[in-house]
Amino acid sequence: MAVAGCGRLNEGGPVKGVVVGNTAVLVVTSGRNGAIAMGTAKLSNGKLRWRVVEEISAGSPEGDSPLILGNGSLARVP
C-alpha cells in the first residue's frame, strides 16, 4: 500500500487469517508502525473487496499512519 505519489509506503507486515466460503477473515499488521487490524476480504464479481472490522491495537508512534486500507476493492484491469 502507498499514498498517491508514493510519499509514504507500507511494505507490509504479516497477514494471518482463515477462509470461510468466499470470505477471508484476516488480521493485518502494518509494516510502518506495527498497528494491527482485523478485516474481511471477499471475492465478488471479479473484485476483491476489503473492509476493516476492528482496530486491534494502535501503532507506535500513534501519529504515524499505518496505511491499512479502511475499505476498498481491487480489480484486474485488462
Give me the number of helical elements. 0
Rg value: 13 Å
- Classify the beta-strand content into a percent band: over 45%
Q: Tell me which oligomeric state these chains represent.
A: single chain
Helix-strand category: mainly beta
Q: How many separate domains make up the residues?
A: 1
Order of helices and strands: EEEEE
Instruction: Summarize the biggest pleated sheet.
Output: 5 strands, antiparallel
Short description:
The chain is mainly β and 78 residues long.
Question: How would you describe this structure to a colleague?
Answer:
With 78 residues, this protein is mainly beta. It has one domain. Helix content is 0%, strand content 49%. The chain has no helices and five strands. Strands 1-2-3-4-5 form a five-stranded antiparallel sheet, with no helix packed on it. β3 (36-44) and β4 (47-57) form a beta hairpin. The radius of gyration is 13 Å and the shape is globular. The protein starts with 14 loop residues before the first strand and ends with a strand. The mean pLDDT is 81.
